[in-house]
Amino acid sequence: MGASDSTSASGPLSDRDPVVEPSKPRLLKMLGPGLVTGASDDDPSGIATYSQAGAQFGYGVSWSLVLTYPLMVAVQMISARVGRTTGHGIAGNIARSYPRWVAYAITVPLLVANVVNVAANLGAMGDALKLLVGGWQLLYVVLFGLICIAMQVLLAYKRYVAVLKWLALALLAYVATLFVAKVDWLAMAKGLVIPHPSLDPSYLSIVVAIFGTTISPYLFFWQASQEAEDLKEKPRREPLVERPSQADRAEERIALDTMVGMAISNLIALAIMTTTAATLHVAGTTDIESSVDAAKALEPVAGSAATLIFAVGIIGTGILAVPVLAGSAAYAVAEAARWPVGLSRKPREAKAFYATVTIATAIGIGLNFTPIEPIKALVWSAVINGVVAVPVMAILMLLASDPKIMKEFVIGAGLKILGWLATIVMAAAVVGMAVTSFLG
Fold first, then answer.
1. Which letter does DSSP use for residue 13 in this model?
2. Per-residue pLDDT tens for 102-124?
3. Predicted confidence band at 146 (pLDDT cuts at 50, 70, 90)?
4. Number of other CB atoms surrounding residue 119 within 10 Å
5. Is 19 a member of any domain?
6. What is the pLDDT of residue 378?
7. To bridge 276 with a disulfide, which of 26, 54, 146, 258 should be the other Cys (CB 3.0-4.6 Å)?
8. What CA–CA distances, in Å, run from 157 to 4, 234, 355?
9. CATH classification at residue 239
10. What's the rounded mean pLDDT across residues 45-74?
11. How many structural domains are present in the chain?
């Protein structure tokens, strides 16, 4: 070994090779699928969860983000390595290694949950823009939905990925809100490092929601498929099972990309929790049902600047997350069905794949015109995601440990331990979700 993603057996690549971007710092070249995946995790639905956690319990549940970080990193790193090693996404590998019904049993619930999430995120984006400029919320929902479809269907893959990376900057809005909140930094630090366990059903419920929001199946499918997608876009890269010499640098890049992406995801979640703990919780505003509710509630206690920043963040993260949600569903469905797949293909070359992207987003738009309450829909979406996550993670661990699939690149003991631990934690979260629902 010793060659890398940016070198091959024939020697260093030329400056014209699409793998190398010499004008960029090395760190920026190494950030890609992991960065986008981590950023998309802080979508408007996640923002609502973190806002509710901070508003209801102050700094008392911040510790959960410290616990989720290594588990997120492990699962996403395993997902990425499956894609980079085999050249196929998770659903593609399941379809090649298990009966086809297993792939469909996994992907259909994922599709349903993603569509509901798309609908809720579009609704939150529409509400946020209405909060900022007034007007008709449903018109904004349609506009944002069309923008998200156009990004995936019309943009060339390389430009599309660049747009997603830039959209990750929208997360800085939530760092900015910290400067308009009077944070008790000592209390925040204690909440971060000292767990405060409680059997209160509402406390258990919010901890389960945090785990379900941060470790979500669509993120696994997206990062694995993007690693496989990059192989088509960057010709000198090949699946590691075919070009083992590229493994060292590939695994180094995946590790850095994933650790940075998940760190950004959790730091932004912490910023949201901290802001709402320092403002809404202190003011006694503890009932937050959506990200826009949080933005509205911030104004009387933190000023109009906080509301503006929070609302802009909702729109920016939504434009990032909706294409990832629809795209991950399309990757899963198309790979399970063995259709031509990939955003690097032209629409005419992968008609069913792009149709799935478009239909998933269009249904998400349409759900906003129905009497279905977005919050209740999100609850059911979280239930579906939580239930689906456990078998997906178990199968992912089996795939990544199978030498028939991964050859000599099966995951090591460290990733196995963390991966199975994450699976057990998610199974416990599903049980916790059932218990808290039973307790009301």
1. P
2. 988 989 888 988 998 899 889 98
3. very high
4. 29
5. no
6. 66
7. 54
8. 22, 11, 17
9. 1.20.1740.10
10. 90
11. 1
Backbone torsions φ then ψ of 338, nearest 5 degrees = 65, 35
Among residues 233, 206, 237, 220, which one has the least CA distance to residue 84?
237
The CB-based long-range contact list for 229-235 (8 Å cut-off, 24+ gap) reads 229/157, 229/342, 229/343, 229/344, 230/32, 230/33, 230/84, 231/84, 231/87, 232/342, 232/344, 232/345, 233/18, 233/157, 233/158, 233/344, 234/5, 234/17, 234/18, 234/19, 235/17, 235/18, 235/19
**CA trace torsion 360, 366, 367, 368 (10° rounding):** 130
Specify which residues 7 forms β-bridges with. 12
Is the model's pLDDT at 29 over the cut of 70?
no
The number of beta carbons lying within 10 Å of the beta carbon of residue 383 is 16
Q: Closest by alpha carbon to 90, among 413, 331, 424?
A: 331
* pLDDT for position 16: 35
Could you tell me which of 121, 211, 191, 119 has the C-alpha nearest to residue 436? 211
What does the pLDDT look like over 341-395, one tens digit per residue?
888 888 889 999 999 999 999 999 999 998 877 666 766 776 777 778 889 999 9
Length of the chain: 440
pLDDT in tens, 307-321: 888 888 888 888 888
End-to-end CA distance of the chain: give it in Å, rounded.
Answer: 56
* Residue 68 reports pLDDT greater than 60: yes
Residue 231 has pLDDT above 80, yes or no: yes
CA distances from 50 to 53, 64, 92 (A): 5, 11, 33
Two structure tokens written together for 97? 């290694």
Chain Cα centroid distance, residue 308: 24
What is the three-class DSSP state of 148? helix
Q: What 8-state DSSP symbol labels residue 156?
A: -
Q: What are phi and psi of 104, to 5 degrees?
A: -70, -35
What mean pLDDT is predicted for residues 164-182?
A: 80
Average pLDDT of the residues in 409-416: 94
- 8, part of any domain: no
Q: How many Cα atoms sit within 13 Å of 396 on the Cβ side? A: 34
Place of tokens 């129905």: 370
The pair of structure tokens assigned to 61 is: 């549940």
Q: Domain of residue 123: give its range.
A: 26-439
The pair of three-digit structure tokens given for residue 308, joined into one six-digit string? 């503006």
Are residues 90 and 79 in contact, defined by beta-carbon separation less than 8 angstroms? yes
Within-domain flag for 11 = no
Among 21-30, 334-343, 372-381, 413-422, the range of highest mean pLDDT: 413-422
Domain annotation covers residue 401: yes
